[in-house]
Amino acid sequence: MALDRRRIAGNVASLVRIPSVNPLHAGPRAREPGERALAEHLAARFAELGAEEVTLDPVIDDRPNVYARFAGRSDALVVIDVHTDTVTVEHMTDDPFDGRIEDGRVWGRGALDTKATLGVVLTLLEEWQARGVRPRPNLLVIGTVGEEGGGLLGAMRFRQWATERRVRVDQIVSAEPTQLAPIHGHKGGMGMRVSTLGVAAHSAQPHLGKNAIFAMAKILEALEAEHRRLEAGVATTPVGVGSLSVGLIEGGTGANVVPARCTINVGRRLVPGEDPDVEYDRLVELIERACPLPVDIESLAPPQLGSMGSPAFYVPADTPLISTLARAAGTEPAVAPFGTNALRYGGFVPEIAVFGPGCIDDAHQATEWVEIDDLMRTADALSAWLDPA
Ligand SMILES: [Zn+2]
Fold first, then answer.
1. Up-side HSE of residue 26: CA atoms within 13 Å toward CB?
2. What span, in angstroms and rounded, lies between the C-alpha atoms of 39 and 35?
3. 283 CA from centroid of ligand 1 (Å)
4. Which of 33, 131, 185, 286 is deepest in the core (most CB within 10 A)?
5. Ligand 1 center to 115 CA (angstroms)
6. 339 Cα: distance to centroid of ligand 1 (angstroms)
7. Reported confidence tier of residue 3, pLDDT bands at 50, 70, 90
8. What is the mean pLDDT of residues 104-133?
9. What is the topology classification, in CATH, of domain 5-186+312-386?
10. Residues 194, 264: contact at Cβ < 8 Å?
11. CA of 99 to the centre of ligand 1 (A)
12. How far is 333 from 77, CA to CA, in rounded Å?
């Protein structure tokens, strides 16, 4: 059953017109940053579209998740998770929020990443309501805050909310631009801030000080060696091998001062089978062994996480959910180079897929768009999975 192209494009466009820039990305062009306005809009729309229950769930700083439950025809419960935040609009070369429909595309920040799937879902719900049909499984549509920065707090909160209520979820689809290939794995991550603690002195009297930058150089050498060791490893899954990177360094106060402190941020990509806590401890040991001075090491994981990082997300490529989506979209299961909300659902939901229209290479750019053809294909694929009747 073909949906109306104009309606599906219009639904995505109307979501683009509600700015929801992640506050960590906000600048002067972001208008009202945060996800609240979009969450409230969605709550009202879901209620109109016949949701049994709609919940605005505060996560952090007046930024709520939204959950809407639609009755199905079986006992199963599936979740469609769409993050409601977008990345920055400061570098955009057109109006980020006009949601114009032009050249077979919907334009604007979030059109692709990831209001596209939200617009498709709204269109399907409208269609089902008009026809008086229901999906086979019960459907929980969730809009989660904070995917584009801040530790996936919205997904983490949804998991806690569902666990407290003993909501048993059978399958979850997390929306991201995957060119309609169901993603069944991607790396996890862990980060730390490491400071070397030296003693300041006049650089003419270096023997009176302890140089924190020299000490950090030893750590950097050890970390690079560790990265090379990881890179040379053998991948046990299509997700690949682990890696390590130092993304930030600062230290020192002046050219003629022996530096008392130097700080780096270390990022470690984790592959299936690696435990964030174990790998964290291993890195701490490596750093302490390499460094001639005392070090101060701090985890960058959000405290709510209860561990030092996120294990990789990985499910077999032949689970029913992955197979159904691949068949329906005419694509092959794949793994992704980027991380998603799926990192928060391991051990909570047995079947997980990351799935959506458009290509991640086009996300976060100076212009953003989604093809209406791809929205139509997404609607077909989600319909095949949800089986309305
Ligand atoms: Zn996204």
1. 15
2. 6
3. 30
4. 185
5. 9
6. 9
7. confident
8. 97
9. Aminopeptidase (3.40.630)
10. yes
11. 18
12. 23
CA of 341 to the centre of ligand 1 (A): 9
Model confidence pLDDT, tens digit, residues 297-315: 999 998 888 899 999 999 9
C-alpha of residue 108 to centroid of ligand 1, in Å = 14
pLDDT, residue 242, reads 96
Separation of CA 147 and ligand 1 centre (Å):
7
Please state which CATH class domain 189-305 belongs to: alpha beta
Question: How close is the Cα of 21 to the center of ligand 1, in Å?
Answer: 12
**What pLDDT does 31 receive?**
94
In the prediction, which pLDDT does 347 show?
Answer: 87
Cα of 244 from ligand 1 centre, angstroms? 23
The first and second tokens of residue 321, run together, are 């959910």
| Domain limits, the chain | 5-186+312-386, 189-305
Tokens of 340: 């998603």
Whether the per-residue pLDDT at 2 is higher than 70: the answer is no
Q: How far is the CA of 351 from the centre of ligand 1 (A)?
A: 20
Q: Contact at 8 Å (CB) between 131 and 49?
A: no
What spacing in Å lies between the alpha carbon of 350 and ligand 1's midpoint? 22
Residue 1, pLDDT above cutoff 80: no
Q: How far does residue 12's CA lie from ligand 1's centre (Å)?
A: 15
Give 121 Cα–ligand 1 centroid separation in angstroms: 16
- SS3 of the chain: helix, strand, coil, percent, to 5: 35, 25, 40
Distance 174 CA to ligand 1 centre (A): 9
**One-letter identity of residue 337:** P
- Asked whether the beta carbons of 173 and 325 are under 8 A apart, the reply is yes
- The model's pTM is 0.90
Question: Residue by residue, what is the 3-state secondary structure of 210-271?
Answer: ECHHHHHHHHHHHHHHHHHHHHCCCCCCCCCCCEEEEEEEEECCCCCEECCEEEEEEEEEEC
Distance from the CA of 83 to the center of ligand 1, in angstroms? 7
Ligand 1: centre distance to CA 236 (Å): 27
The chain-wide mean pLDDT, for the chain, equals: 96
Q: What is the pLDDT of residues 53-68, one digit of tens each?
A: 999 999 999 999 999 9
